[in-house]
Design a protein that fits this description.
The chain has 204 residues and is mainly alpha-helical. 64% of the residues lie in helices and 6% in strands.
Length: 204
């Protein structure tokens, strides 16, 4: 019997792929914030973690302490999962490859379904992710620039150390977004590789 794709099963497969992507991003985001916070906590000092501590405005319970690192890791992981799952559902048909195959069970003569998870397509996934990051930077910077009457944000100004040409105005945001696109592309390409490893283990 020839292989065919059953549409409801294929849709379920895309959801499963989205879950895996969400878990990968959750682990990366949660672990990264936990380790960064713990490193600052162990470093000590009166000004330690002044910038990272601003995340408390978004992550309840977060602080540059061991307990705060656990809370921040949880919230960062949850955020990573939501982002990964959303990307997987929104763009799954484009950069998630997978197939639901109807396979003949020769031993029993019965027909069953076999689900497989395939690897991410690195280039489309990296392009989508990097584009979203760049757009987010332009929108956030432009909104703050407009909201505060064109005055520079001292926190956003720190991004100039990492994004050549970035300034806290719409034009500078566009210039800086080019560098962010490059960083995001490389990072997303690496995430696609990790996802591929997870997918292969899941299929084993």
């Amino acid at each position: 019997m020839g292989a065919r794709v059953d549409q409801p099963v294929a849709a379920a497969l895309v959801r499963l792929n989205a879950h895996v992507l969400g878990v990968v991003l959750a682990l990366l985001a949660g672990t990264a914030l936990f380790l960064a916070t713990l490193a600052l906590h162990l470093q000590g000092g009166p000004m330690t973690g002044q910038m990272l501590g601003l995340l408390a405005h978004f992550f309840p319970g977060y602080a540059v302490t061991f307990g705060g690192a656990l809370a921040g890791g949880f919230w960062a992981g949850l955020t990573g999962y939501v982002v990964g799952y959303t990307l997987g559902r929104a763009f799954g048909a484009w950069f998630l490859t997978g197939a639901a195959r109807m396979v003949e069970q020769r031993a029993t003569g019965e027909l069953g379904q076999q689900h497989t998870i395939r690897s991410l397509r690195p280039l489309p996934f990296a392009a989508v992710t990097a584009s979203l990051l760049s757009i987010g930077l332009v929108v956030a910077t432009s909104w703050l620039w407009w909201r505060y009457g064109g005055h520079a944000s001292p926190h956003l100004e720190l991004l100039a150390h990492y994004l050549p040409g970035y300034t806290t105005d719409p034009l500078g945001a566009v210039i800086g977004s080019l560098s962010l696109f490059g960083y995001g592309f490389v990072a997303a390409f690496g995430i696609a590789g990790i996802y591929g490893v997870v997918a292969r283990l899941r299929n084993a």
